[in-house]
Amino acid sequence: MELQKLLQGIDLFEGLSDDELAKVARICTEKRFSKGQIITQEGAAGDELYIITQGFVEIVLGGRPASAARVVVNLGEGQVIGEMALLDQGPRSATVRAASDPTVVQAIPRQDFDNLCQEDTRLGYIVMRNLAADLSFKLRHRNLVER
């Protein structure tokens, strides 16, 4: 599937024009993983967002010791992981592991995204608004589950 078409269906990029989606596609870098390979490690500094373009990943929490780790969700094509890396370079909140062979993702480095937002403030505003809405939803959902 053409990357720009895939981006068009992702909530994070909802509201972007075809030209803006093309700009996002240009800063993406394909990365391939084998089943079981770690894509991100809980606690490590985050500097990239990932878009799953083929296969599946497992989101794993509590990996220390490894026997305490538990898979909390599986994600597949068109889903985004590591989105908080676009906001800060804080530690990753979970480990992400490839669950299929191959697992293919598109990586967007934070610095490249920041540069794109400087060049095209409308694009940056829309993506950040969508990101804020997504994180707000996740936070509210988490708070409801913990009650």
Q: What name does the CATH topology carry? A: Jelly Rolls
Percent range of helical residues: 25-40%
Provide the CATH top-level class. Answer: Mainly Beta
Give the neighbour order of strands across the main sheet. Answer: 1-8-3-6
* Helix/sheet category: alpha+beta
Report the major sheet.
4 strands, antiparallel
So what's the overall shape? globular
Total helical elements: 4
The strand count comes to 8
Q: What ranges have pLDDT less than 50 throughout 5 or more consecutive residues?
A: none
* N-to-C series of helices and strands: HHEEEEEEEEHH
Radius of gyration: 15 Å
C-alpha termini separation: 41 Å
CATH architecture: Sandwich
Mean pLDDT equals 89
Strand content: 25-35%
| The named CATH superfamily | Jelly Rolls
Set out the fold topology.
Layout: H1 3-8, H2 18-26, E1 29-33, E2 38-40, E3 48-54, E4 56-61, E5 70-76, E6 80-81, E7 95-98, E8 103-109, H3 110-119, H4 121-146
Antiparallel strand pairs: 1-8, 2-7, 3-6, 3-8, 4-5, 4-7
